[in-house]
Design brief:
Length: 685
C-alpha cells in the first residue's frame, strides 16, 4: 500500500436495513447484511478527500471462511453469469451497486474494497466486510423461481407449519415450528453444509457446487440424518429413548439444530420421519428454496425394488419380521426448482426424503425426484424415482407361511398404498390433498398406462373356483380415545344363496405407526355358521387394561381378520388400523401481545386416563416468541385431575405467531396444543 494515500476510504456502510428489507431477509437479521442472488444491493463508501478522480475501486469477494473461492467483481456489466458493480459518486460518497448472478453459489462471503492508483497499486483498502447470499425464489433467472407471491409467503417465509399424522381414514395433525428466521439458524444451516462428506473431502469443489439447488438439497437430505456422516439427527423407532429426547417430544426444528451445533456437530437423539422432514424443511426454507412438508398415508417401504410389499404371517396371523413394510404414514418434503439436468417436463415440486431408509449412490439420502415423474411412471430420472414410486403405488401382498414352510397367498391389495397424500394449505392451517399430483385416479385408464410403463404386473389371486366369493369379511371402524374401553366389530357377510360354514380367526395387537409390533392382547378362533344372505357379527371388547402398556408416540390398535369357508373358496383376509386419539391442551393468553413486553399464558390439561400420570412435562416454544422451554409437573397427575401451569415471556418479533405446547408423561404422550398470537409494535409517544 502507498502510505502517501493511506486513509482515502473513511468508512463503508453496508446499508443493512434497506438491503435486507428489499431482499426479504430482515426477519433473519437486521444488523447483518443478508441478500438473495440475482438481485442487486447497494453499499456506500465514504471518502476523506472527496470522490477520487484519478483512483478507481476494485472489489474482491471470498466465499467461505478462508479464501477457498476468490471472485473478482467486474467494473461493469459484460455477461450475466459474473459478479459486477456499478459506481456513482457525489461529494465525498460513492454508491456501489453490486449485482450477483442468478446462479451464484450461496454461502458466507467476505468483501474487500480496494482503492487503486492509475498504475494498479493499492493505495487504500477496507476488508472483511461480511454478507450472506441465499437462493432467490423471487428472481426469474434463479432455478428456484416460484412465480406466485402467496406460495412464496407460505413455502419460504412462513415459520409455522402443520404436520399430518394418524391413518388415511383418520387423519390427525400436530403443529410444528420451523423457525427458519430464528437467531443463528441461518449460520447453523451453512454449518450443516460445511460438515457434509463432500465439503470435508473437497471444500473448493463443494463451495462452487452450492450454486445448484439440486446438489444442495441432496446434501441436506443426507445431513439431516446422521447415518454415516456428521448429520443432525439420529433416528430411533424402538422406544428406547432414555439417553436422548423422544421424537414425539419435539415441537420444532430450532432446538434440534442448536443442540447439534452447540454439541460440536454431534448427532441429536432422537428423530423419526416427521422430525427429519421438519428439520429439512427449516434448512431448505432458510436457504431460500421453497419447501413444503408432505405426509403420505399407507406408505410402502419396498426394499428390493419389486414395486410390491410382501407381508408374511403365520397360521395364527402373527407377522414375521420381513424386509418390506407398510407404514400408517410417512413424511418427506417437496422443494420447488427447475430441473435443467432432466428432460423437459420435470420442473416444479421435487421429493426429498431425509429419513434414512435406503442408500442412494452409497449415502442415506433420497431425491430430489420430480413429482411429475412419479405420476407418469418415468422411473429412469434422477434421483431415486423407483423407491418414491413404490412408496405411493406398491402392491401389498399377504402370505401365510405354513408349518411346513410353504407360502400361501391370501390377499393382494392393489389400492391401499399412497392415500390422502397431504400438506398444509397455503391459505390456512387446513389440509390440502395432493394425491393427484403423484398418481392418476385409482382405476383410471391413465393409471393402468403408467403401471404398464413401469412393468408392474397385475396378478389375480389363484383360486380353486372361478365362482364369486360367497363370504365377505369387514371390520367396522371406531374412533376410540386413549384411556377408554371400546368395541371392535368384525362382520362375516354371506352373499350367497346357501348357508356357509367357516373358520374365523381374529387377532388384535398394538403396533406403532411404522408397523412395529408391541404385542398381541386378544386372539380368537371360532367356527361360524352364516345363513344365506345374512351377517354374522363378532364383538370384541377392548379394555384400557389390555393396551395400557402400549405407550408409543402414535398408538395404533391393529385388527386382523381371516375367514375360510369350509370346502369353499380360498381364505379372505382383512386388516384395520385403529388409531387411538388423545385430547388437546388448553392455552389461555392474558392480555395483548406486544414486542419485548412480558406476556403471561396459562396452560391446562386434564388427565383422561383411569390411572395417574407420572413425570409430566410441558414443552413450549414459538418462532419469534420464545425458545423451547420445559415446565415439569410436580408430583403425579391423578385420574380426572386438571393440571395448570403458568408461563411468562416477552415476544421477540412482531407479526402473527404460533405458540406451540407439548405434554408428555409415562402413560400419555404427544398431547399437543397451539394458539395464535398477533404481536404488535410498542406504542411510542
Amino acid at each position: 500500500m502507498d502510505n502517501n494515500h493511506k486513509g482515502l476510504i473513511t468508512s463503508v456502510d453496508l446499508r443493512t436495513h434497506a438491503n435486507n428489507r428489499a431482499h426479504r431477509t430482515k426477519e433473519i437479521d437486521r444488523e447483518r447484511l443478508i441478500v438473495r442472488r440475482g438481485q442487486p444491493f447497494s453499499i456506500t463508501v465514504l471518502c476523506s478527500e472527496g470522490v477520487p478522480t484519478k483512483h478507481y475501486l476494485d472489489l474482491v469477494l471470498n466465499l467461505g471462511k478462508g479464501e477457498e473461492v476468490l471472485i473478482h467483481v467486474q467494473k461493469e456489466h459484460q455477461t450475466g453469469d459474473r459478479w459486477w458493480f456499478y459506481q456513482q459518486g457525489a461529494q465525498d460518497e460513492i454508491l456501489l451497486t453490486l449485482h450477483s448472478p442468478a446462479d451464484a453459489a450461496i454461502g458466507q462471503y467476505h468483501l474487500s474494497l480496494l482503492m487503486m492508483s492509475p498504475d494498479g497499486h493499492v493505495v487504500d483498502r477496507s476488508e472483511n466486510m461480511r454478507f450472506d447470499l441465499l437462493f432467490n425464489p423471487w428472481c426469474k433467472d434463479d432455478v428456484v423461481y416460484l412465480p406466485y407471491e402467496s406460495l412464496l409467503q407460505e413455502y419460504v417465509m412462513n415459520e409455522d407449519g402443520v404436520i399430518y399424522m394418524g391413518a388415511w381414514d383418520y387423519i390427525t395433525s400436530i403443529p410444528w415450528s420451523y423457525g427458519q428466521f430464528e437467531d443463528n439458524v441461518m449460520d447453523i444451516c451453512f454449518e450443516v453444509l460445511d460438515n457434509s462428506k463432500e465439503s470435508l473431502e473437497n471444500l473448493v469443489m463443494d463451495m462452487e457446487r452450492r450454486s445448484n439447488p439440486i446438489y444442495v438439497s441432496r446434501i441436506i437430505t443426507a445431513m439431516v440424518n446422521s447415518n454415516g456422516d456428521r448429520g443432525v439427527l439420529s433416528g430411533r423407532w424402538d422406544e428406547r429413548y432414555s439417553d436422548g429426547v423422544p421424537p414425539y417430544r419435539w415441537t420444532g426444528s430450532v432446538p434440534i439444530l442448536r443442540q447439534w451445533s452447540e454439541a460440536g456437530v454431534r448427532a441429536v437423539k432422537y428423530g423419526q420421519c416427521w422430525v427429519f422432514a421438519g428439520v429439512a424443511c427449516t434448512v431448505l426454507r432458510c436457504l431460500g428454496i421453497p419447501t413444503r412438508l408432505i405426509t403420505n398415508f399407507s406408505s410402502a417401504h419396498d426394499v428390493d425394488g419389486s414395486l410390491s410389499v410382501d407381508i408374511l404371517v403365520n397360521e395364527q396371523l402373527e407377522s414375521f419380521d420381513g424386509k418390506d413394510s407398510s407404514w400408517n404414514f410417512h413424511c418427506w418434503v417437496e422443494s420447488w426448482m427447475r430441473r435443467d439436468d432432466l428432460p423437459i417436463g420435470n420442473d416444479g415440486w421435487q421429493v426429498l426424503d431425509p429419513t434414512p431408509q435406503e442408500r442412494s449412490d452409497g449415502e442415506f439420502c433420497c431425491g430430489p425426484c420430480p413429482v411429475r415423474a412419479i405420476k407418469e411412471g418415468d422411473l429412469g430420472v434422477k434421483y431415486d424415482a423407483p423407491f418414491v414410486f413404490a412408496e405411493v403405488n406398491a402392491d401389498i401382498i399377504y402370505w401365510i407361511v405354513q408349518r411346513d414352510g410353504q407360502r400361501r397367498k391370501i390377499r393382494e391389495d392393489w389400492g391401499s398404498v399412497g392415500r390422502n397424500i397431504s400438506t398444509k394449505s397455503v391459505y390456512s392451517d387446513l389440509r390440502e390433498d395432493v394425491t393427484l399430483h403423484y398418481k392418476y385416479p385409482e382405476g383410471s385408464r391413465k393409471e393402468r398406462e403408467v403401471y404398464e410403463k413401469v412393468g408392474r404386473r397385475v396378478m389375480e389371486l389363484t383360486n380353486d373356483s372361478t365362482e364369486p366369493r360367497q363370504l365377505q369379511l369387514s371390520i367396522k371402524p371406531v374412533r376410540p380415545v386413549f384411556g377408554t374401553d371400546f368395541d371392535v366389530i368384525v362382520e362375516v357377510n354371506n352373499e350367497g344363496d346357501r348357508d356357509a360354514h367357516a373358520q374365523l380367526t381374529i387377532l388384535v395387537m398394538a403396533v406403532t405407526y411404522i408397523s412395529f409390533h408391541c404385542g398381541v392382547f386378544q386372539r380368537k378362533t371360532i367356527r361360524v355358521s352364516v345363513p344365506a344372505r345374512k351377517v354374522h357379527r363378532e364383538v370384541l371388547r377392548l379394555r384400557f387394561d389390555d393396551y395400557v402398556w402400549c405407550t408409543s408416540e402414535h398408538p395404533v390398535i391393529r385388527v386382523k381378520g381371516l375367514v375360510e369357508a369350509l370346502g369353499g373358496n380360498g381364505p379372505i383376509m382383512t386388516v384395520a388400523n385403529i388409531p387411538l386419539s388423545v385430547p388437546e391442551l388448553l392455552i389461555q393468553v392474558l392480555g395483548k401481545a406486544v414486542v419485548w413486553q412480558q406476556l403471561t399464558v396459562f396452560i391446562s390439561f386434564t388427565n383422561p386416563l383411569p390411572v395417574p400420570l407420572k413425570g409430566g412435562v410441558f414443552t413450549v416454544e414459538g418462532a419469534g416468541l420464545l425458545s423451547a422451554t420445559e415446565i415439569h409437573v410436580k408430583g403425579d397427575v391423578a385420574p380426572g385431575q386438571k393440571v395448570k401451569v403458568k408461563l411468562s415471556f416477552s415476544p421477540m418479533r412482531t407479526g402473527v405467531r404460533k405458540l406451540l405446547v407439548d405434554f408428555d408423561s409415562d402413560r400419555l404422550r404427544d398431547v399437543k396444543g397451539v394458539t395464535t398470537l398477533i404481536v404488535r409494535k410498542k406504542h411510542t409517544l
